[in-house]
Design goal:
- The complex is a heterodimer.
- Helix content of chain A is 34%, strand content 18%.
- In chain A, the strands form 2 sheets. In chain A, strands 3-2-5-6-7-8-1-9 form an 8-stranded mixed sheet, sandwiched between helices.
- Chain A contains 11 helices and 11 strands.
- A 7-stranded mixed sheet of chain B has the order 10-9-8-7-11-12-15, sandwiched between helices. Chain B has a 6-stranded antiparallel sheet with strand order 4-3-6-1-2-5, with helices on one face.
- Chain B is built from 6 helices and 15 strands.
- Classes of the chains: A alpha/beta, B alpha/beta.
């Protein structure tokens, strides 16, 4: 079992101030002053002397936005040296279990396959992820239905679990251990009672979430690949596409969606290749020169999004490219709900629970 | 650290007009560059954009590459109106190309349509380099009209080679054209091949590939012996950007050459 430490709330604040000497520290900030049950949190550069804000659930932005920027320079032209500029060391607080599950997909795309993306690799190596347990959830949250627990189990460097007077800090990697070893004065070994308290809190949240999710009857991961395969020709796609305005929000906010486009631009006399996030809901996503487009219809594009998430990634990674974070549900102006699409497929295929 | 999105520089050395809408661009890479027949590259007009093409020159020639391009979109129309000696970006080569070793000892049927002859020219050079390894090469080429035929002065040379059986057909005839008139599927009957040891390679517009594939299946070709050159909206070339996905494949890294066996259960491959 990995090592678990205790860090008191005030000590954590001191630690963050110290960390800022070496790292750029990002942490959650509430989007409104007065907290309510549905307050949104956003990753912000940690400002001086502010206490750490504990986000009870995931932030608005996907974790991917730290590793692939929405729009950035991919390459120069014909300049021999193309060294990566010094990226600096980054620490992110407030990452949640769903973000980490989704990040498995990003890592697969950018670190595995034919060749790895060196800029992604460099950012990955320069970034320390300090995740934390969820202590509440949003209406749109459905991680458990995607087999993702509301507390991190892997993929973090250090995970924080809130207790009354501080946090349990679980080590998830060598890098996490090194960080704690470098600042030993802030940490003490966790007591068994504290670890039991963490387990109780975790179980309590899981039970609550399970109870809330049960009536929603979201089809389980075990049948999701079959749903999009057997449901390929169903009218589900047409039906749900009626309200799609092709904004691409569902893809851009998605923590697993990784598609990008390479484009060229001229800036002050030099040419650059630009890499920017793309969306398979955009009409020209699959269009080729001459005008042919295999995804001409919005319904085809919605289906493309689902076959990518629930067929392609089950095929290659044995998991769906969906972590149940619900960001796409919140962002959609057409109120297209990924849970409802899966449920409709299940109903029409007589696989509903 | 290698930047996987960075193009190498190539100088546009010559432009050859093949037909009213098709030109061959001869590019001399400034760094070492080589490809296998059937692999593709992303060719960039710096500051304007890039597009995927399969080189049409002999893969054994390393110092320059030919890319035969139809004027069809933004990048290609600017290229068609360019002058020589400009700098172009080259990324690649990408994909797997043709598995030549699997064609050895076989009757190799190649069916090309329109500008689809361009990538097939690189394949032909690849085959010609070791022509004795293959039983015979039967080529059937279809163009819309006689004016649309590309590599006009090279086809007679290839046709005359020992072990090559060539026939060109045009969809629409005219008084200047003395050859066969009819769709490509009309010249696939009574092929001089032994079906027991034949493979077929098809490259052309999607609609042509669809009907040729159906015809080949009719003739008794096994789906695993039909090699198709697929084209979708390839961007990164590395299986990362997502655009060229069909089913569980990315055309760019898993193809662009697939057997029909691999694709037969994938939806909408001809769209």
């Amino acid at each position: 079992m990995s090592k678990i430490y205790f860090v008191a709330t005030d000590k954590l604040s001191f630690l963050i101030e110290r960390l800022k000497d070496t790292y750029t520290v990002f942490s959650p900030a509430a989007k409104v002053q007065n907290y309510t049950r549905d307050t949104d949190y956003s990753f912000q550069k940690h400002s001086s002397r502010d206490p750490l804000v504990f986000n009870p659930y995931r932030c608005v932005e996907p974790l991917k936005s730290f590793f692939t920027l929405s729009k950035e320079k991919a390459s120069d032209y014909f300049i021999s040296a193309d060294n990566l500029k010094d990226l600096g060391q980054v620490i992110i607080f407030g990452v949640k279990s769903c973000d980490l599950a989704a990040h498995r997909v990003q890592d697969y795309v950018f670190l595995e396959g034919v060749v790895e993306d060196s800029l992604y690799r460099a950012r990955r190596e320069n970034t320390i992820i300090i995740s934390s347990d969820c202590t509440a959830y949003k209406e749109v949250c459905f991680c458990l239905a995607m087999d993702v627990l509301p507390h991190p189990t892997a993929g973090f460097d250090i995970n924080l679990s809130p207790l009354n007077d501080g946090f349990l800090a679980e080590v998830g990697s060598n890098r996490g251990q090194e960080l704690i070893d470098n600042y030993p004065e802030y940490f003490s070994p966790a007591k068994d009672t504290q670890v039991s308290a963490r387990a109780a809190k975790r179980n309590n949240l899981i039970e609550r979430l399970k109870r809330d999710l049960a009536p929603k009857k979201i089809p389980p991961t075990s049948i999701q690949q079959r749903l999009v395969r057997d449901g390929f020709n169903l009218d589900t796609w047409n039906q749900f596409m009626q309200t799609c305005v092709e904004c691409g929000g569902c893809n851009l906010i998605c923590d697993t969606c990784h598609c990008f486009l390479l484009e060229d631009r001229k800036t002050s006399g030099t040419n650059e290749k630009i890499k920017m996030w793309d969306s398979c809901l955009y009409a020209n996503y699959a269009r080729v020169a001459g005008g042919a487009n295999p995804n001409k219809l919005r319904a085809q594009r919605l289906r493309f999004r689902f076959t990518k998430k629930f067929d392609f990634f089950f095929e290659h990674l044995k998991m769906p490219a969906c972590c149940g974070c619900g960001r796409c549900i919140e962002v959609c102006p057409g109120k297209i709900d990924i849970r409802e699409v899966l449920k409709d497929l299940a109903k029409k295929l007589n696989l509903a629970q | 650290m290698k930047n996987i999105y960075k193009p190498i520089e190539g100088v546009l050395e010559n432009i050859i007009t093949e037909s009213s809408k098709i030109k061959t661009f001869v590019i001399r890479p400034k760094e070492h560059f080589e490809f296998k027949c059937g692999q593709f590259i992303e060719l960039t007009l710096p500051g304007i954009g890039e597009a995927p093409f399969t080189p049409s020159s002999d893969p054994a020639v390393k110092e320059k590459i030919d890319v035969t391009i139809m004027n069809a979109g933004k990048v290609t129309s600017i290229l068609h109106n360019s002058d020589k000696n400009i700098s172009l970006g080259i990324r690649g080569p990408f994909g797997k190309g043709y598995p030549l070793h699997k064609f050895e000892g076989k009757d190799v049927l190649i069916v090309g349509g329109g500008v689809g002859l361009a990538p097939l020219r690189a394949l032909l050079f690849g085959l010609f380099a070791d022509i004795k390894k293959y039983n015979k090469i039967v080529f059937r080429y279809g163009a819309r009209t006689a004016q649309d035929i590309i590599y006009k002065d090279q086809i007679p040379v290839w046709s005359a080679k020992e072990g090559v059986d060539w026939l060109t057909t045009v969809d629409v005839g005219d008084p200047s054209w003395k050859g066969h008139v009819g769709l490509i599927t009309t010249v696939l009957n009574d092929l001089p091949i032994d079906m027991k040891k034949a493979v077929a390679i098809v490259c052309g517009p999607p609609i042509m590939m669809k009907f040729v594939t159906l015809k080949l299946l009719d003739l008794g070709f096994a789906p695993s012996d039909i090699y198709l050159s697929m084209e979708k909206s390839m961007s990164c070339g590395l299986g990362k950007c997502g655009h060229c996905r069909i089913g569980k494949f990315y055309i760019c890294k898993d193809g662009p050459v697939f057997t029909y066996e691999e694709l037969k259960d994938v939806h909408d491959i001809w769209d």
